[in-house]
Design goal:
Elements: H1 24-30, E1 49-50, E2 63-64, E3 68-73, H2 90-99, E4 104-107, E5 110-113, E6 116-122, E7 125-130, H3 144-155, H4 165-168, E8 175-176, E9 181-185, H5 194-198, E10 224-230, E11 234-239, E12 252-257, H6 261-269, E13 275-276, H7 281-286, E14 293-297, E15 304-310, H8 320-329, H9 332-340, E16 344-346, H10 368-377, E17 384-390, H11 396-410, E18 413-419, H12 421-424, H13 427-431, E19 435-440, H14 445-452, H15 463-474, H16 478-495, E20 498-504, E21 507-511, E22 514-515, E23 532-534
Parallel strand pairs: 3-12, 3-13, 17-18, 17-19
Antiparallel strand pairs: 1-2, 2-23, 4-5, 6-7, 7-9, 8-9, 10-11, 11-12, 13-21, 14-21, 15-19, 15-20, 16-20, 22-23
């Protein structure tokens, strides 16, 4: 996930068992998107049995070991990367957290230790204790030198995305203090929940000295080691038997890159893959009549947020009356009914629902008369208003089109600017649009607000909010953090620039004997270290 300095805070992939080489056209043909359909491929086999507490809803029994698991995720084509600081598509996330490990990872709204066992403050340093006996895929042992190297990359030009972590910690000056201790200088005041800050998807620990990420040089400590990689097509991973948290269930994990949701669903229906992540609501429902397939729904507390971020660097977006008009004028229920097809609920303009310290504020009531009055006060009637969108999440583009239609009914000259994934996060082009359709997963609040502030065209520029966010980030007690987070969120709900119009289920399609998906924070990016086949 991306992080950025909060405003107002001072900074300083025919598939057969023996041949996985295939082109994108061959894959689409195999799953029925092309002119031919492939014969069904048998599911993976199992041998000895283990029990897995993370068995998904709809699958019952014990997960066996052995066999190949094949999963399809949305990808970004040739821009996909093995670098954990690289491309942000779903398949990139699934790949990186299968090969690498973080220091901490969220589970049940709490950061749990992974490669780190704990953190403390000593003077001006954050002291990180590392787990003993962790082995890289090449047989070498994890030491503090690897973490220091990872921090240096994160603070350097290899990290192309802005990061709020660099506001809190001087990663470039991190140093080893023995083989299993790392000291990181603190910038300014200590943040109160450093484990949460370090539980970043992008902060995956790489082996010291890694300068390129190729099939032979990409070495992590995760449950799977890299075997083959073809950007925009497939990744083949092998079980790492020396994994510190216990070996994975399957011998081999294959990740297919399929941007088209229909292709992902057809891949499961034709038994080319065992699991397809993040599929459209209507498409998922069409799969319910297929024997041997389940439609799986994420828990309510892991629903993702669908948002429109108003650009406060534009003339209209600067005005509080204009932002309030849009929050009052939007038809949230129509968007939920049309885009989510019953698999969601209206949002209350706050991200992070289900997270610790989340403020469960009421959903604004629609008032089009008041909205038009406010638009007149802001001098916005008849003004051009362009909404940026990209095909990153299910329904994102269609939601922008419906929102534009609603705004035209209110008197704005609203249009949609659909861009490519390559353009999506470009700062200059982001700044040229008046609003952006944007998704945020069910992450912890520091990550959610780090993400929402990741790019200036999306950020909430408000001094009082910045001060409240600063207090929330630096509070050291549970009660203090709760009070501070509630204050910051109330300001965002009252006059913020993010319209969180809905919270949606994340639907997946899976073979009914496939289990072991672990949903840490966002079900769009599950951890795959325990997947396998159920007896």
């Amino acid at each position: 996930m991306f992080h950025q300095v909060p405003q107002g805070v001072e900074m300083p992939p025919n598939i057969t068992v023996t041949d996985l080489r295939m082109t994108r056209r061959q894959l689409l043909t195999a799953i029925g998107i092309g002119s031919l359909a492939v014969a069904a491929v048998a599911c993976g086999s199992e041998s000895s049995t283990t029990t897995d507490e993370a068995l998904p809803t709809g699958a019952s029994g014990d997960i066996g070991t052995g066999g190949r698991a094949r999963l399809a995720f949305a990808g970004s084509g040739a821009t996909e990367s093995l670098d954990p600081l690289g491309a942000p598509s779903a398949v990139d996330y699934a790949r990186r957290i299968s090969i690498f490990d973080p220091l901490f990872a969220f589970h049940d709204a709490t950061p749990e230790p992974r490669l780190a066992t704990g953190v403390t403050y000593e003077g001006d340093d954050l002291v990180i204790a590392l787990r003993e006996g962790v082995t890289f895929h090449d047989g070498s042992t994890l030491t503090s030198a690897d973490v220091v190297f990872t921090f240096s990359r994160f603070a350097g030009p290899a990290n192309v995305y802005p990061s709020d972590l660099l506001m809190y910690f001087d990663f470039a000056k991190a140093r080893a203090d023995g083989p299993l201790t790392v000291r990181v200088p603190v910038r300014g005041r200590r943040i109160g929940w450093p484990e949460a800050a370090l539980a970043s998807d992008s902060l995956q620990i790489v082996k010291a000295g890694t300068t390129t990420f190729t099939t032979t040089s990409t070495i992590g400590t995760g449950p799977y080691a890299l075997s083959k990689f073809a950007p925009g097509e497939q990744t083949v991973l092998k079980r790492f038997d020396e994994y510190w948290a216990g070996p994975a269930n399957v011998d081999e994990l294959v990740l297919l890159s399929l941007p088209e949701p229909g292709a992902r669903v057809n891949a499961v229906k034709t038994k080319v893959v065992d699991y397809a992540a993040d599929v459209p609501f209507a498409t998922a429902m069409q799969a319910t009549s297929t024997s041997g397939i389940q439609v799986r729904t994420s828990p309510d507390n892991l629903r993702g947020s669908y948002c429109f971020a108003i650009n406060m660097s534009r003339d209209l977006g600067k005005q509080e009356a204009f932002r309030k008009a849009l929050r009052l004028g939007i038809d949230r229920q129509a968007l939920v009914d049309t885009i989510m097809l019953g698999h969601g609920e209206p949002g209350n303009d706050l991200v992070g629902a289900g997270a610790k310290y989340y403020l469960d504020a009421s959903v604004p009531k629609r008032d089009t008369d008041r909205a038009r009055t406010l638009l007149e006060e802001a001098g916005a009637i008849g003004k051009q208003f362009r909404i940026r969108c990209f095909n990153y999440e299910v329904g994102l583009v269609d939601s922008a089109k419906l929102f534009a239609s609603q705004l035209r009914d209110l008197g704005l000259d609203a249009t949609v600017n659909e861009v490519t994934m390559t353009e999506a996060f470009d700062m200059k082009s982001l700044a040229a649009d008046d609003a952006s359709a944007f998704p945020i997963g069910a992450f912890n609040l520091p990550t959610c607000y780090g993400l929402s502030q990741s790019f200036p065209p999306l950020a909430f520029h408000d001094k009082e909010f910045g001060q409240a966010l600063d207090r929330a980030l630096h509070e050291t007690t549970d009660g203090g953090r709760r009070t501070a987070w509630e204050a910051a969120q109330q300001i965002a709900a009252d006059r913020g620039n993010w319209i969180v119009w809905g919270r949606a289920d994340t639907l997946a399609i899976a073979a009914d004997n496939f289990g072991g998906i672990v949903e840490r924070e966002s079900p769009k990016y599950p951890w795959l270290g325990k997947v396998g086949f159920v007896h």
